[in-house]
UniProtKB/TrEMBL annotation:
Residues 37-191 form the Beta-mannosidase-like galactose-binding domain. InterPro entries: Beta-gal/glucu_dom_sf, Beta-mannosidase-like_N2, Beta-mannosidase_GH2, Galactose-bd-like_sf, GH, Glyco_hydro_2_cat, Ig-like_fold, Ig-like_GH2. Keywords: Glycosidase, Hydrolase, Signal. It holds the Pfam family Glyco_hydro_2_N2. Residues 213-311 form the Glycoside hydrolase family 2 immunoglobulin-like beta-sandwich domain. Gene3D superfamilies: Galactose-binding domain-like, Glycosidases, Immunoglobulins. The lineage of its organism: Bacteria, Bacillati, Actinomycetota, Actinomycetes, Micrococcales. GO terms for biological process: carbohydrate metabolic process; glycoprotein catabolic process. It is an enzyme of class 3 (hydrolase). The keyword rRNA-binding does not apply. Belongs to the glycosyl hydrolase 2 family. This is beta-mannosidase.
Length: 835
């Protein structure tokens, strides 16, 4: 047990994370595990405790997922003892920051609480149950699978995706399995457990409502709930940037009563917080204290420290001549969103620590992202996540936790939803990186288009949450923060949710049925979801799957492909562009490259539509286990080629060649940086052997945050040999290519580039010189060492051109391995070898 105090605060916090044991109570427990008790980690989960004890196989490997599904069908018990002695405080609260999910808490044999919501914090008064010396604390968890099944009967069937009724329980939906996630419904104390002792008064909710007046005057209205154990006079004191104010709290309250006060602070000449790429991210320390009597007495009872940022954010959904806009405006400046969707970074979320989040956000920054959307089938993200985004200027769009299902609005769910929303709005609202609350993922769209209506038979399905409860709570607790009813969302319940002319859209027909060239047939206002599948990195596949032989359809590979008809969709989406290889390593490279090309194709088109289209949020940045999926970073944290494609296509400055009506081609130049861009646009048509066939130039003068389209003249743009020619547009060091035919139909030759490897201080420099036109040159360096990281991929070179890659690697390796054709990959290999 760890004991801490906050400065001179009279609140004593004892951390109750030690000495826990875990055992199964009932359910389909394997015979050799019955009556077995193992040490348990808190915070932790049943799966991770059993895994650490060596009692179950790793669910991430091979087909082990199916060997451990029994865990979610069982009831479990955690048990510990802790020592306690009277400390002069008159209030003692057990605080569980996260119980997953169907829990009964007992202290010294007495039931303290029964809980049914993973997403809430529970504060339980236990002063009358504590005894001198040893105290026994027991937490029993019911089977989440059995509870969800029974709850779905009790409240009545509501349509949902996949095979568990996750919509009947307030637990992370993806914990029951998803089209990228394993079915591993777990249980446990997944956040901190403490015993908090206090007297007189303590700080409950602290909500700093931050606004900015011109010119740069910051206002902070600090709304504070003071819980009191008696009617003594106390004072709330708040301070930020050297500005201090206090408000006395008086009046009689019953024991456990709450007094609500607001402390107003005004700060001149504040530095504004900006998204990355738009400015700095200054953060201000805000301290809130409750003291006994007047402030001069300085008898501190409790203290809270927060970091805030001063900025304004508006999400504009405004009718215009083209429909309804969807645009983020920060400090009066429109922001073109370069984002990705975020899912839980591990199927067992307690394994995600601050260092791991930091590494993942590093990768988001490598990909030039400025926004992450926290998807509604997971969690309200951690304080660590939000603090890191505050520091880095990464905006956060937070879904409320409703995804791909209809939800009952009757009790007990309505009250649970309200309680969890109040908890999490209050916890997250101080963060300047939080720019949008969103009611749900795909549920309004699902009701409109997925046939829910007749299956619901008139039952509630969640609309009351999205249009009434949630916006009302955001308005009450976090006024001024933007709210949207769902994603996709047109801005009005009277307009179809996924209308490309109105608001945000999800574009999934291209992956599911159509193919990625059809992205150019859509001119959306904002794309909140779209994506293309690709396999995990090769070293991740080798670690997770032991199939021999390993094929795209071998048992372990299929177990790590969760999408319906996923491999068929991979194949259907490949063969129009690249040939389907029979060799597994070539298949892996082809699918990885096609994923990167599909997303590049889409984003280049969407960015060329600016300002009609004001952002894309690709599905998805990360994975929660090693799986074939839409992620740019796989389940072991390794970057796939897609991450490098995003690095290129999300750069501040983008040059792309796009088709226009009548068959013409135009060079679209996007300047999303802070500086004007003046240069020359060179448009050149080459034969594949490097011969210049035609060229032209045009002057470029672009203001910051603007774009322009320059049509290529017919004599330059029109190919005489489409299979053997390429159009290139160059602006300074930025360039774009237009190939007139699909790669598989082109005359691209087998490449034999010269590869030179040099040892440098933190790894290797790999210099590649092209002997012929080389398309999509990449170094799959994880094949040499799983920890190796390359600085770039997907580089196209004309004959004779050279590119140097930097490979970060701590250990020394055989330099020739970095030059191997299985590491140095190109599109040429796939096409020329196929011929």
């Amino acid at each position: 047990m760890t004991l801490t105090t906050a400065g001179l605060s009279t609140v004593i916090t004892r951390t109750l994370h030690d000495g826990w044991s875990l055992r199964a109570l009932r359910g389909p427990v394997p015979a050799d595990l019955r009556e077995v008790s193992v040490p348990a980690r808190v915070p932790g989960l049943v799966h991770t405790d059993l895994l650490e004890a060596g009692l179950i196989p790793d669910p991430y490997l091979d087909r082990n997922e199916q060997k451990v599904t029994w865990i979610g069908e069982c009831d479990w018990e955690y048990r510990t003892t802790f020592e306690w002695h009277a400390d002069g405080r008159d209030r003692h609260d057990l605080v569980f920051e996260g119980l997953d999910t169907v829990a009964t808490v007992l202290l010294n044999g007495q039931t303290v609480a029964s809980t049914r919501n993973q997403h809430r914090t529970y504060r339980l008064p236990v002063a009358e149950l504590l005894v001198e010396g040893d105290n026994e604390l027991v937490v029993r968890f019911g089977s989440p699978v059995a509870f969800a099944d029974q709850a779905s009967l009790d409240i009545g069937y509501r349509p949902h995706t996949y095979f568990h009724p996750f919509n009947a329980i307030r637990k992370a939906a993806c914990n029951f399995g998803w089209d990228w996630g394993l079915d591993a419904a777990s249980a446990g104390m997944w956040k901190a457990v403490t015993l908090q002792s206090w007297q007189g008064a303590r700080l409950g909710a602290v909500r700093p409502i931050v606004t900015v007046d011109a010119p740069a005057r910051g206002r902070v209205s600090v709304h504070v709930d003071v819980e009191r154990s008696d009617d003594r006079a106390v004072t709330v004191v708040a301070e930020v940037a050297g500005v201090r104010a206090e408000v006395p709290v008086t009046g009689t309250v019953p024991a456990g009563g709450v007094s609500a006060v607001a402390v107003e602070l005004e700060v001149d000449d504040v530095d504004l917080w900006w998204p990355r790429g738009f400015g700095e991210q200054p953060l201000y320390d805000l301290t809130v204290r409750v003291v006994d009597g007047a402030p001069t007495d300085d008898a501190e009872l409790d203290i809270r420290a927060l970091r805030i940022g001063f900025r304004t954010v508006v999400v504009e959904l405004e009718p215009d001549a083209e429909g309804t806009s969807f645009r983020f405006v920060v400090n009066g400046q429109p922001v073109w969103v370069r984002g990705a969707n975020w899912i839980p970074d591990d199927a067992f979320v307690t394994r995600v620590d601050r260092a791991r989040l930091s590494a993942r956000l590093d990768q988001a920054e490598i990909a030039n992202m400025n926004l992450l959307r926290i998807w509604g089938g997971g969690y309200y993200e951690s304080d660590d996540f939000y603090e890191l985004c505050d520091e880095r200027g990464i905006m956060v769009w937070q879904d409320f936790l409703f995804a791909c299902a209809s939800y009952a609005e009757e009790e007990p769910l309505w009250s649970e939803v309200e309680a969890e929303a109040r908890d999490n709005i209050t916890r997250l609202m101080p963060h300047p990186s939080l720019v949008l609350w969103n009611g749900n993922n795909e549920n309004i769209w699902g009701f409109e288009e997925w046939g829910w209506g007749k299956r619901l038979q008139g039952r509630t399905w969640g609309l009351g949450y999205y249009l009434d409860l949630l916006p009302r709570l955001v308005s009450e607790l976090d006024p001024g923060r933007a709210y949207t009813a769902g994603s996709p969302w047109s801005g009005s319940i009277d307009i179809p949710a996924n209308d490309p002319d109105h608001g945000s859209v999800h574009l999934w027909e291209h992956w599911n049925r159509v193919d990625y060239p059809a992205y150019r047939d859509v001119s959306p206002r904002f794309v909140a979801e779209f994506g293309w599948q690709g396999p995990a990195t090769w070293s991740t596949i080798e670690r997770a799957i032991s199939d021999s032989p390993l094929t795209p359809e071998s048992p372990g590979m299929i177990a790590h492909q969760k999408a319906t008809d996923g491999n068929d969709k991979l194949t259907d989406g490949l063969v129009a562009h690249l040939p389907l290889p029979d060799d597994t390593e070539d298949w892996h490279w082809a699918m990885s490259l096609n994923q990167a090309n599909a997303v590049t194709y889409a984003i280049e088109h969407f960015r060329s539509l600016s300002p009609r289209c004001m952002g894309t949020v690709v599905w998805q940045l990360n994975d929660c286990w090693p799986v074939t999926s839409w992620a740019a970073v796989d389940g072991y944290g390794r970057a796939k080629p897609l991450l490098y494609a995003l690095k290129h296509v999300y750069a501040d400055r983008l040059v792309t060649i796009q088709p226009r009506e009548g068959g013409s081609l135009a060079v679209s130049v996007v300047n999303d940086g802070p500086d004007a861009w003046a240069d020359t646009v060179e448009i050149t048509r080459f034969a594949f052997d490097g011969t210049v066939l035609a060229s032209s130039t045009a002057a470029l003068a672009l203001e910051p945050r603007s774009s322009i389209s320059i049509e290529a003249t017919t004599d330059v743009a029109q190919a005489t040999d489409p299979a053997g020619e390429v159009l290139m547009a160059t602006v300074g060091s930025d360039r774009a290519f237009w190939f007139y035919t699909e790669c598989r139909d082109s005359s691209i030759e087998a490449a034999n580039p010269r590869v030179e490897v040099e040892r440098v201080s933190d790894g290797y420099a790999v210099t590649v010189t092209a002997d012929v036109l080389v398309r999509d040159l990449a170094l799959l360096v994880d094949k040499v060492s799983p920890g190796a990281v390359v600085d770039d991929m997907l580089v196209t070179l004309l004959p004779g051109e050279t590119h140097t890659f930097h490979v970060r690697l701590d250990a020394e390796v055989d330099a020739s391995a970095l030059a191997s054709p299985r590491v140095v990959r190109t599109a040429n290999q796939l096409v020329a070898d196929w011929r």
